[in-house]
Amino acid sequence: MPFAKPISRGARSGGDILGIPTVSFGCGFPPIASALIAASIAILIMAVTQYLIFKKGRTDFLTPKLEELYLLLNEVSEHNAIQFNLNFRALGGDPAAKSQLSGMDDLDLYGLRRAKKIVMHVRLYFPKLSRAHQLVFAAERELNEIKHNILSGATPDPEEVMLASGQVGHSLMLMEQEIIRNRDLLLGANILPKFYRSTSAAEVANVRPPPPGDPFGPSPARKATNAQTTERTAAATSAMDVARRRKV
User: Is the pTM of this model over 0.85?
Assistant: First the structure.
C-alpha cells in the first residue's frame, strides 16, 4: 500500500484535500456588506415612497374638506350681511322685516345648520383651526342673543347690532385668512417642516369701527354732495325765474 502524500503547511483545511470548496471569511465580508447596504437603500426608498403616497392620499382626501369649510364660511358671511339688513330694518319699525324674521325657522335664523357642519369639519379634520373657530362661535352667539331680543320685543341699540354683526364678519375674515396662510399644513402637503401661523391677539383686537350714520342711507360725504347739488339747483332755478320776469 503506497504511503499518502504528506500535507504541506500551505494547505488551508481538509476540505481542500477532499476537493470540497470552502468559504474564506476574509474574502466574503465585502460582498455581504454590499448586500446589506443595497438592502438598506431599497428599504429606505420603499419607506420614502410609501410616505409620499400616504401624504398625497391624505392631501387628496382633505382638499375637498377644506374647500367645503371655506365655502361654509362664505355662506355664514353672506347670511350675516342679510341678517344685519333685516335686524336693522326691524329695529327701525319695518313690519316686513319683523315678519320675515319671525317667520324664519330657528335653524335658519341662527345659522345652526352651517354651524354644525363647521364644527364637524374643524373637530374631525382641522383641529388646528379650533381657536379661530371659537372666535367665530363667540361672535355668532352674541349676535344671536341680540336677534332673540329683537324678536322678543326688545329694542337694543342699533350701534350694538352693528358692532355685533361687524365682530362676526371680522372673526370670519380672520379664520379665512388663517386657512389661506396655513393651507399646506392643514392639508399635509408640506415636505419640509413649517410653523403654523395662528391668528395673533393684535389681529383679533384690530376690529374696524362701523361707519357713522345710517348704514343703509347715504354716507356723510354723499349727504354733503346732495346738499350742495340741491343748493345749486335752487340757485339756478331762482336765476332763471328772475330772467323770465325781466323779459316779461
Answer: no
